[in-house]
Amino acid sequence: MSRISQQFEALQKRGRKALVAYIVSGDPNPAATLLVMHKIVEAGADIIELGVPFSDPMAEGPVIQRGHERALKAGTSLNSTLDLIAEFRKTDTVTPVILMGYANPVERMGYRRFAERAAQVGLDGILTVDLPPEELGELKNELAEHKIDNIFLLAPTTAVERARNLVSNASGFLYYVSLKGVTGAGHLDVAAVKAKLDEFAGLTSLPICVGFGIKDAETAASVARLADGVVIGSVLVDAISKHAEQPPEQIAEAVGAIISDIRRGLDSL
């Protein structure tokens, strides 16, 4: 059983909802990212989602795009992100870590080399935004061989038949995008989220976490009533942006405070 599956099983036994925290690797620098990773776990995050900086992050809104820009300016790459995970694993061998990014850096590294290195450093899963299941090919086989979960996005526009294909290729958990558009955009419509999740009911036994548009404890709690967990991203990256010129310890404290508040919201259910 993967670390991700173990985490969801443990949360279910405790009656808790998963809190997945997204930050951009290397934003604003690698030292800050490492401290933030440890701090958000301490504050109540159950899974860490690291964004791999990319020059054209098409699924991201302005806040996270700027995070990618800061990370690229700091020299962050897929290789250095894997190094960062290895460093994190020296003191945390429990918290699942997944990568969220785009196909190009993985293709450039090579699927086999990526999967081998990812398994070696302790990566648990990958969500490749622009790589649909029809184009997985060799990557799917390499991920399976190295026991790395392959996570997919479901969206408001995803039809049931399409969802059936996606979930058949997925492992770990599924990420439901609650809004049309990019990260950080729009107003969260909880009723619409419920209606769509009801459509997907019965298609899979995998946990479903909801992201996009969740900004505080209140919205997190309202969504968590419908799903197995929530994904928090833009509000964390925005906090990093506001404290980017401060020491890494202060950046970590700012992000940790947000996670603590959202954790309290989820645990109030």
Description:
The protein has 269 residues and is an alpha/beta fold. It has one domain: TIM Barrel (Alpha-Beta Barrel). Helix content is 50%, strand content 14%. Strands 5-4-3-2-1-9-8-7-6 form a 9-stranded parallel beta sheet. It starts with a helix and ends with a helix. 46% of the residues are buried.
Describe how the helices and strands are arranged.
Blueprint: H1 3-14, E1 18-24, H2 30-43, E2 47-51, H3 62-73, H4 78-89, E3 97-101, H5 103-109, H6 111-121, E4 125-128, H7 138-145, E5 149-150, E6 152-154, H8 160-169, E7 174-177, H9 190-200, E8 208-211, H10 217-224, E9 229-232, H11 234-242, H12 248-267
Parallel strand pairs: 1-2, 1-9, 2-3, 3-4, 4-5, 6-7, 7-8, 8-9
The fourth-level CATH homologous superfamily is Aldolase class I
The total count of strands amounts to: 9
Biggest beta sheet attributes = 9 strands, parallel
Put simply, the count of helices is 12
Q: How far apart are the first and last residues' alpha carbons, in Å? A: 28 Å
Structurally, the number of domains stands at 1
Radius of gyration: 17 Å
In CATH's first tier, which class applies? Alpha Beta
How helical, in percent, are the residues? 40-55%
H and E string: HEHEHHEHHEHEEHEHEHEHH
- What is the CATH topology classification name? TIM Barrel
**What is the residue-averaged pLDDT?**
94
Classification by helices and strands: alpha/beta
The strands making up the biggest β-sheet line up spatially as 5-4-3-2-1-9-8-7-6
Which term fits the overall shape? globular
Low-confidence stretches: 181-185
For the record, the CATH architecture stands as Alpha-Beta Barrel
Q: In percent, how much strand structure appears in the residues?
A: 5-15%
